[in-house]
Design goal:
Layout lengths: L13 E5 L3 H12 L3 E5 L5 H8 L3 E5 L12 E4 L4 H13 L3 E4 L12 E5 L2 E5 L6 H14 L4 H18 L3 H13 L3 H6 L3 H18 L6 E6 L10 H9 L2 E4 L5 H4 L7 E4 L11 H13 L3 E6 L9 H10 L4 E4 L4 H8 L12 E6 L19 E6 L5 H10 L7 E6 L7 E6 L3 H6 L5 E5 L6 H4 L7 E2 H7 L3 H5 L1
Parallel strand pairs: 1-2, 1-4, 2-3, 4-5, 8-11, 8-12, 9-10, 9-11, 13-14, 16-18
Antiparallel strand pairs: 6-7, 14-17, 15-16, 15-17
The protein binds S-adenosyl-L-homocysteine.
The site of S-adenosyl-L-homocysteine (SAH) has 23 residues, from α13, β15 and β17.
Pfam families: CysG_dimeriser, NAD_binding_7, TP_methylase
InterPro entries: 4pyrrol_Mease, 4pyrrol_Methylase_sf, 4pyrrole_Mease_sub1, 4pyrrole_Mease_sub2, CobA/CysG_C, NAD(P)-bd_dom_sf, Siro_Cobalamin_biosynth, Sirohaem_synt_dimer_dom_sf
Function: Then it catalyzes the NAD-dependent ring dehydrogenation of precorrin-2 to yield sirohydrochlorin. Finally, it catalyzes the ferrochelation of sirohydrochlorin to yield siroheme.
């Protein structure tokens, strides 16, 4: 982040504007809205500025800039097209650490004006940090359409009762929960937006007293959320809502860190594991931790990569949470098997190639004496293998033994759905060699459907094929991987 978004109170604060044309006028009109004390330096001023001068809304302090004019000024806006003069003013202001905005010249800005959506007192500023102002403007238009004009009423209504609520609900977590209830309420907000303040107030206070007397925020709850396999766009809307309402998020290493940025800033985000065999917090301790957090009133989101019920131990965690009497819910996610396959252009079923699909985990499979390899012999079944990288030889040997042909197509996909997704394609006998060439997390897809990648790959680089890897392993592969 190059700039810190900040809302500044400029009421009665001295701001210097250099320039007297239409560009300066636009900035001055904005400064007037916040009550700044505006001083202008310009050779001549346009008729609109003359009107402001007559009304004493601005102070025209001179025709020529001299450094002493910066005295006691907190912000300088340069709106001239004289590049030499702009540099002179910018350098002088910088020397005294005065904030400078030079219109249309980002190289001479220590602060920039965002595109603004104004629903007083709600303000939204959007900036591309000088890289693409047009994009910021388009985003602004989108938000303008999205946000009701009445948004400001809701904030004003809330501000009236802020202190009252503080007095009645002392605990900050409980208070936050109360406000969430109010803002998500199906009655209060619509009443406010329809100007029916009396009824809104009645409902507001009945909610407040109800909560105060029933102490209904005493216990928190747990939401088990699937974050999807990587691409942030694969998070569900319900998952996003849970994340944004969470007091604490306990997440696994597989979760895309960009998803955590979608949470509130005051949400505690704690990494609790896990890479294979590398658990930051042992499962038993983690279960206890979740229960303890919920019991002390927190809204806990347990965020897992992919889908929490697919090789995610989500079921085990919920068993303990349920035994402890904690309320919980589950928000499914897109599992790596389907998400990664889709982004690799490999349909897991296809009428001509596979009539079914099986998901298995390769983790500990060699120690599992009861595992029925023969059930995987059907060539019309696609196999999706999670966590297979640690057991590649065992997997390929057993599949060949149970009847899968050595030339069965396999895809080894790492970082699926991310921009650095890599796909290697070869045959079952080559599985170990391919798996060694990629990083964690890696998914195997085995079966004839893999050959469809060639035609319907749509995301990222196309696959690197094993016959090419053989001949150019030391050149292109390095580059590719
Ligand atoms: N609950 C998760 C799976 C957890 S097991 C889900 O539903 O997806 C972890 C394994 O998932 C990894 O070892 C890997 O095999 C697979 N995996 C998860 N994300 C992946 C990704 N982006 N690319 C490739 N494989 C992935």
């Amino acid at each position: 982040m190059k700039y810190l978004p900040l809302f500044i109170d400029l009421k009665n604060k001295p701001v210097l504007v250099i320039g007297g044309g239409s560009v300066a006028l636009r900035k001055i009109q904005m400064l007037q809205r916040v009550g700044a004390m505006i001083k202008v330096i310009a050779h001549t001023i346009c008729p609109e500025l003359k009107k402001l001068l007559l009304k004493k809304n601005i102070n025209w302090i001179g025709k020529k800039f001299t450094p002493f004019m910066l005295n006691k000024v907190i912000l300088v806006i340069i709106a001239t097209n004289d590049a030499k003069l702009n540099t002179l003013i910018y350098n002088n202001a910088n020397k005294y650490h005065i904030l400078v905005n030079t219109v249309d010249d980002q190289s001479k800005c220590s602060c920039i004006f965002p595109a603004i959506i104004d629903r007083n007192p709600i303000l939204i500023g959007i900036s591309s940090c000088g890289t693409a102002p047009m994009l910021a403007r388009i985003l602004r238009e989108k938000f303008e359409l999205l946000l009701p004009q009445t948004l400001g009423y809701i904030a004003k209504f809330a501000s009236l009762w802020r202190n009252t609520v503080k007095k009645h609900i002392i605990n900050t977590v409980h208070r936050r929960r109360f406000w969430e209830k109010v803002f998500y309420d199906d009655h209060i907000v619509p009443l406010i937006t329809r100007n029916r303040f009396k009824e809104a107030k009645k409902k507001f206070f009945s909610t407040l007293l109800n909560i105060k007397h029933n102490n209904s925020f005493k216990t928190g709850h747990v939401t088990l959320v699937g974050a999807g396999p990587g691409d942030i766009g694969l998070l569900t809307i319900k998952g996003l809502q849970a994340i944004q309402q969470a007091d604490v998020i306990l997440y696994d290493c597989l979760v895309n860190s960009d998803i955590l940025d979608l949470a509130r800033r005051d949400t505690d985000k704690i990494c609790v594991g896990k890479h294979i065999g590398n658990h930051i917090m042992p499962q038993k301790q983690l279960n206890q931790f979740i229960i303890q957090l919920a019991k002390s009133g927190h809204k806990v989101v347990r965020l897992k990569g992919g889908d929490p019920f697919i090789f995610g131990r989500g079921g085990e965690e919920l068993q303990k949470i349920s035994e402890a009497g904690i309320p919980f819910q589950v928000v499914p996610g897109i599992t790596a098997g389907t998400g990664v396959a889709a982004y690799a252009g490999i349909p897991l079923t296809h009428r001509e190639y596979a009539h079914g699909v099986t998901f298995i985990t390769g983790y500990n499979i060699n120690n599992n004496k009861k595992f029925n390899w023969n059930s995987l012999s059907d060539t019309q079944q696609t196999l999706v293998i999670y966590m297979g990288k640690v057991n590649t030889v065992n997997i390929s040997n057993n599949l060949i033994k149970c009847g899968r042909h050595i030339n069965t197509p396999v895809a080894v996909i790492s970082n699926g759905t991310y921009n650095n997704q890599k796909i290697l394609i070869g045959t079952l006998i080559e599985l170990e060699k391919l798996a060694k060439l990629v990083d964690y997390p890696t998914l195997f897809i085995i079966g004839n459907v893999v050959s469809l990648h060639n035609k319907i790959n749509w995301f990222g680089k196309t696959a690197l094929y094993s016959h090419k890897i053989n001949s150019i392993i030391n050149t292109v592969t390095k580059d590719y991987i």
